[in-house]
């Protein structure tokens, strides 16, 4: 049995074998693997007795369920109008400069992926950056770069 199959069996034991378990199982895979591979989606379909199309349809619908490989640290910048008005474009440019990647790309060392998100639910504290599960409200270019540099140093 592969590592992914073992992980899926563990997640299904934890969350159950019903259709309602699909989201927590997929989220658990993304948390461990940083994306949903085709192999993982097929194994989930078999384990939950669902069609592969149903699993892929769910996975591809939700922004936070990545179906392509991502970096260890996923940076998401909110792109709503309120964050836009408070300088999100300048923050993105600063991060692109320091990471040497564009939005949608992953660094060569696979440590960071830079993405935008439709809404992070912090409009009153924008601009907002999410790194993995940690929210950084009211950031500016300097704060964003300092946060990313701190994460890079901590993971060496």
What does this structure look like?
With 156 residues, the chain is an alpha+beta fold. It folds into two domains: 3-61, no CATH class; 73-154, Glutaredoxin (3-Layer(aba) Sandwich). The chain has helices at residues 3-15, 22-33, 38-48, 52-61, 81-85, 88-99, 141-154, and strands at 73-78, 112-117, 129-131, 134-136. A hairpin with a 2-residue loop joins strand 3 (129-131) and strand 4. Helix 1 crosses helix 2, helix 1 crosses helix 3 and helix 6 runs parallel beside helix 7.
List the helices and strands and how they pair.
Blueprint: H1 3-15, H2 22-33, H3 38-48, H4 52-61, E1 73-78, H5 81-85, H6 88-99, E2 112-117, E3 129-131, E4 134-136, H7 141-154
Parallel strand pairs: 1-2
Antiparallel strand pairs: 1-3, 3-4
Helix pairs in contact: 1-2, 1-3, 2-3, 3-4, 6-7
Number of separate strands? 4
CATH class of the largest domain: Alpha Beta
Strand content: 5-15%
CATH topology of the largest domain: Glutaredoxin
Radius of gyration: 17 Å
| CATH architecture field of the largest domain | 3-Layer(aba) Sandwich
Residue runs with pLDDT of under 50 for 5 or more positions: none
Determine the number of helices (DSSP H or I, runs of at least 4 residues). 7
Q: CATH H-level name of the largest domain... which superfamily?
A: Glutaredoxin
- Spatial gap, N to C terminus: 32 Å
Strand count, sense and closure of the main sheet? 4 strands, mixed
**Shape category:** elongated
Strand order of the largest sheet: 2-1-3-4
Mean pLDDT: 93
Give the helix/strand class: alpha+beta
Element-level helix/strand string: HHHHEHHEEEH
Helical percentage: 40-55%
């Amino acid at each position: 049995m592969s590592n992914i199959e073992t992980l899926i069996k563990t997640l299904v034991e934890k969350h159950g074998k019903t259709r309602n378990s699909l989201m927590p199982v997929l989220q658990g895979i993304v948390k461990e693997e940083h994306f949903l591979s085709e192999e993982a989606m097929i194994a989930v379909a078999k384990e939950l007795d669902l069609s592969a199309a149903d699993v892929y349809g769910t996975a591809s619908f939700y922004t936070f369920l990545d179906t392509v490989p991502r970096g260890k640290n996923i940076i998401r910048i909110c792109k709503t109008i309120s964050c836009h008005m408070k300088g999100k474009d300048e923050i993105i440019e600063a991060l692109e400069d320091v990471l040497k990647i564009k939005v949608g790309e992953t660094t060569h060392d696979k440590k960071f992926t830079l993405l935008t998100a439709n809404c992070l639910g912090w409009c009153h504290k924008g601009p907002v950056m999410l790194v993995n599960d940690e929210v950084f409200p009211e950031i500016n270019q300097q704060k964003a770069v300092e946060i990313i540099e701190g994460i890079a140093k901590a993971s060496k």
